[in-house]
Design brief:
By secondary structure, this protein is of the alpha+beta class. The chain is built from eight helices and six strands. The chain has two domains: 125 residues, Alpha-Beta Plaits (2-Layer Sandwich); 66 residues, no CATH class. The strands form two sheets. The protein has a four-stranded antiparallel beta sheet. Strands 5-6 form a two-stranded antiparallel sheet. β2 and β3 form a beta hairpin. The longest helix is centred in the C-terminal third of the chain and has 27 residues. The protein is globular and about 50 Å long.
Length: 203
């Protein structure tokens, strides 16, 4: 990749095989991955789709401002932890990168859909579907806060009942609370809040 390409938006498409017996778990896992990516600088959007109702092929697509911000996400400890948590049911088959605008609207190996103009019209063939742009940063910040504040408030209240917890050093209390709250936020709270606010986020 030349120096000019390093400054162009980068789109990554990933093909995975998912254990069909763990579809519900995989759905939450995929959504958690896209939610996690939104918190990184340079993030421009992401999405995922299944090849079919009975297919074990799932596709994930995400886009970053340039190669530097993309690699910051791909090499992050957060992404490493997320990938590790899905190893039991997700197997990566293919990864492909594209630069420029074509990487977003002409996603590699993406599942096509038939375009029809009417109920009796014949298919016009598979077409690539663009993924909606990411919500504005301020909306992302509001969404995260709406999930984090009540969760952190409840956890702080409950931990206050733990014998001796309030006597711990500040760093130890923060360490314990973040270890407990990170999976709760990733797998439960943030997916629920983003689903609840989806119309507002995409408006």
């Amino acid at each position: 990749m030349d120096a000019m390409a390093d400054t162009h938006p980068i789109t990554v498409a990933i093909e995975r095989r998912i254990d069909p017996d763990r579809t519900r778990e995989a759905t939450a896992w995929m959504q958690a991955g896209t939610d996690l990516a939104t918190t990184f600088p340079g993030f421009l959007g992401s999405g995922w789709v299944r090849a079919g109702e009975d297919s074990d092929l799932w596709y994930m697509l995400y886009r970053f401002h340039d190669i530097a911000t993309l690699e910051s996400w791909e090499q992050s400890a957060q992404r490493g932890w997320w990938l590790e948590s899905g190893k039991a049911f997700a197997r990566e088959e293919r990864v492909e990168r594209r630069t420029g605008i074509e990487g977003w609207f002409d996603a590699p190996f993406a599942t096509g859909v038939e375009s029809r103009r009417g109920a009796d019209a014949t298919p016009t063939g598979p077409v690539a579907l663009p993924i909606p742009p990411a919500p504005p940063r301020w909306k992302q910040a509001v969404t995260i806060w709406l999930g984090f504040f009540p969760t952190n408030l409840l956890a702080s209240w409950l931990l206050g009942f733990a014998p001796g917890f309030t006597e711990w050093p500040l760093w130890a209390r923060v360490l314990l609370s973040t270890v407990l709250l990170t999976p709760v936020m990733t797998y439960a709270v943030l997916p629920w809040v983003t689903r609840l606010l989806r119309r507002w986020l995409q408006r």
